[in-house]
Amino acid sequence: ERDVKITLETGDELSSLAEDFNAMAEKIRKSEELRRNLTADIAHELRTPIAIIQGTLESIQEGVLEPTPALMLSLQEEVSRMTRLIKDLSDLSLVEAGKLELNRIKIFPAELAGKFIHFKAEAEAKGIRFDINFPRNLPAVYADPTRLVQIITNLLSNALKHTSSGRIELSAEKAEGGVVFKVQDTGSGIKKEDLPYIFERFYRAEKSRSRKTGGTGLGLAITKGLVEAHGGRIWVESREGEGSVFSFFIPSAT
Ligand code: ADP
Questions:
Q1: Whose CA is nearest to atom 2 of ligand 1?
Q2: One pLDDT digit (tens) per residue for the chain, 254 residues
Q3: What's the half-sphere exposure (Cβ side, CA atoms, 13 Å) at 100?
Q4: What are the b/e assignments for 57-73, b being 16+ CB within 10 Å?
Q5: 179, 253 Cβ separation under 8 angstroms
Q6: What's the ipTM?
Q7: CA nearest to 169, candidates 249, 250, 248, 245
Q8: Considering the entire predicted model, what is its pTM?
Q9: Element (H, E) at 23
Q10: N or C: which end of the chain has fewer CB within 10 A?
Q11: What is the position in ligand 1's atom list of the atom closest to the CA of 185?
């Protein structure tokens, strides 16, 4: 009887181990696939705007299209898109190589609040409430102010992009050894199956794949790299249809 029980327990443990192992293998396989896709993704992302620019210029030369101000503006947008991609790629390669230079200083989170005021106007124009909630007693963090603003700006831009009603909140709270910043939205949320991968470069949840949303799929990979360069970490909680909370920890000045 005892033997049977042990066998059963072992069987249970084995199948739970096998499950863990399969989940891990799946994650590794998907990461590898994303890595191999990197070059293909870059080529693809550049090919599209170049094709549009080339086609438009040819049509203008052939007299098929008038070079109206609106047409010139659309060309400009394609150029901006390429510029953004190249800037993102160079940021990403710096953070991934650990070669990003940080000019760290002691900084109180409240000092940065002014940098995000323009989001209030943008949110309110869409009928979304926007609040910044930095309590007075927050300790100073040890951070590069430009990079810290870039991290928060990336998260707020995403929140704005994926929210059509409700509220977006930027807040911060004291934590062991530092400060946890949070960007919370009442937007589309993220599917459970997408959640493990959204910090991977070029990963975009299916409905964000269109060119309309304008993203390169590099934003969160860069954001994560910037947080980690500060010795911090970043995580997300999200429920599809309800909204998302992106949180990151930045250590205090010691
Ligand atoms: P992108 O350039 O596409 O915005 P990111 O790396 O910033 O790339 O984000 C990756 C994907 O994560 C997005 O395409 C989107 O599907 C999802 N995502 C990021 N932030 C949010 C959010 N606040 N709400 C819903 N989905 C989000």
A1: 215
A2: 444 554 555 677 778 888 888 888 887 877 777 666 677 778 888 888 999 999 999 999 999 999 999 999 999 999 998 998 898 888 888 888 888 899 999 999 999 999 999 999 999 999 999 999 999 889 999 999 999 999 999 999 999 999 999 999 999 999 999 999 999 999 999 999 999 889 988 777 765 555 555 677 889 999 999 999 999 999 999 999 999 999 999 999 87
A3: 26
A4: eeebeeeeeeeeeeeee
A5: no
A6: 0.97
A7: 245
A8: 0.80
A9: helix 2-61
A10: N
A11: 23
User: Can you read off the two tokens belonging to residue 107?
Assistant: 């900084």
DSSP 105: E
Residue carrying the six token digits 């059509």:
164
Q: Which residue has the tokens 């760290």?
A: 104
Task: Give the pair of three-digit tokens for residue 96.
Answer: 């991934």
**Which of 153, 170, 198, 240 to mutate to test ligand 1, by most ligand atoms within 8 A of the CB atom?**
198
Structure tokens given for 252: 């205090």
Q: Are 170 and 131 in contact (CB under 8 A)?
A: yes
Among 150, 155, 208, the mutation site with the greatest number of ligand 1 atoms within 8 A of its Cβ is 208
Residue 148's CB is within 10 A of a number of other CB atoms, namely: 24
